Every structure is written in C-alpha cells, then in structure tokens.
Structure prediction request, 331 residues.
Amino acid sequence: MPAAAAPAQPSRAAAAQHLGPDVIETHAADVYPEGFAWDPTRRAFIATSALSGDLSVIELDGTVTELAPSIGMVSTLGVRVDTARNRIIVAYSDFWIRQRLEVGDQPPTSGVAIFALDTGELQRRVDLSGGRERTFANDLTFDDKGNIYVTDSVSDTLQRIDRRGRVSTVVSDPRFAADIVGLNGIVWHPDGYLLALRYDTGTMYRIKPDAPSGRRVTEVRLPRPMVGTDGLQLRPDGSVVVVTNSIGEAVGVPGGVDGVSVLSSRDGWRSATLRSQIQPWPVGGPTTVALTPYGDYVLSGQVGEVLAGRTSDLIVLRRLPGTTSSKESNR
Prediction:
C-alpha cells in the first residue's frame, strides 16, 4: 500500500470539540481492513488487512498510513490493543488467501502476531496451525493477566497463549466445529469468562476457562440467532455490541444480515435480551466495532469485495447512533 492515503473529509463536522465525525470515509488501495481497534496512545484506529497482511493507522480525519509491513501471505484479521503491556495482538491466517492466490509450498498458516504498540515492530509470532490442513485463526481477546484467547473458525478448539508464548487448549467442543466459518467474534468478561459467537449459526457461548472440563461451555439463550456475527465488543455497562454481515454468502454461508445489535444480560450471560438493533446497516459489509471516546465506530472495509473477486479502495467507519461518548475498551 502507499505510504499514506490522502485524508478524507468527514461527512459532517463535529458539533463540539470533544465529538468525532459521524462518518469517516477514506480510500486506500489493497488494505481491506477486516478488524480494527482504538489506540488511545495515538488517538486513532489500528486496522488489519484481509489482503496484504499488514497493519495501518486510520486517523479521525481519514488519513491512512502503514504502521507495520506485511508479515507474509496471510490475512491479518482480529486485532486488540493492550496498552498495559505495550502491545498490539493480531490474529492471522492464510485461509482466505490460499483460496484466492497462489501460495506456493506454504503450508496452511494460522496464528497470532504480537507487535510493540509504541513502534509497530513485530515482536513475536505464535503458530497455531499445528500442521493441520485446515486452520483459521480469526479473532482474539485477552484477559487481565495478559493471556490471549483465539477462535479458529474451522476448528472445534479454543486456544490460549500465555505471556511466554506457550499455547494450550482451553476447550475442544463439537459445538464449535465448522466447515467454513464457525466460531468467530470473542470478548473477555471481567467476571472471568469469555463470550463467543458462531458466524454460521449465530449461536452464542459462555466459556469459563477455569471451570471443570465438562462445564466450561454453556450456550447463551438468545432472543434469536445472530447469524453472520463477525466482531464483538463488551461495553463498560456490560452490554455487548454485535456486528453481523452478509459477507458469508460469497463463500457458501447464507443468512447473515448487515447490521449492528446491542445485547444485554441480567443473569451473568446465561441468557441475553436485545436492547437495540439497526438492520440493515447503512454501509454494506460491516465486520466489527471499536469503542472510542467519540462513540462506537463500525468498520466496513470491503472485505466482501475481496471474497467475491472484486476490488475497492473504500473504507468507511460509521459511528453507531446514540454513542457520542464511550469509554475506551479493547477487550
């Protein structure tokens, strides 16, 4: 990608200095961000790339600059900013790349890359493929101790990476197994459990890593399946923002709708209720959401265009209505 893309003008100027733009629309070739996270140190977004395998910074004025060069023929996908440990953690995989491009003798590749937050320097890559023929690290989160939890969308296993880079299995459960895109978005809850959703079925799971092996996974009762769920964010008030899309139709996973929903729970996420929902989302192909001091921004990075074999340089970050101020969260 070019060193910098020209800044775009927000669609509407902020009414007050503490407010960000309602919409950030910009253009950058070959980026196709699937994931992004708010970086409070830069007061900007860190974005991944479904096509190029690098990291970019997207400013509030729409300026796009490269933060870290490509780590190889992979997609960089889910991303979290861990300010306490000065790191950016990124899930990567060649699952989509190898279906669209010639990867030579590269074996199926999947894992987590860890970058220094202050410099963007790659510090470590942790391989999660394990020699498997199908591997798809898609999203990730981290707990208070710095352990990283990673969803693999074609596996029945949820994996954990500790601070030393050691990989262990949290749980293997047949309910996670999928052919194309299963377990995807995931967040850590401060009460000591994970919440994760399947893309294809819209089923939500509550996963308690330290519970006895037979009791670690329970299905959350939802008002309706959240088919097409991609990214999640846990708000400070305990609600969860869920971003769904129809991108899966291009690869044989129908039923998703471009939308943003807010779920809440009164029983520790054994069940959930629908607080609000916007369907369809005004910009096609939303993939995730980031909480910022200026509100909750939803990313549409044209990932569906890549999967369909088309091209686009458009990137749109649109603020969720009613969220003009939100405490930052990167979990």
Remarks:
- The two ends are 28 Å apart (CA to CA).
- Helices lie at 97-100, 303-307.
- The chain has two helices and 25 strands.
- The CA atoms of residues 76 and 92 lie 4 Å apart.
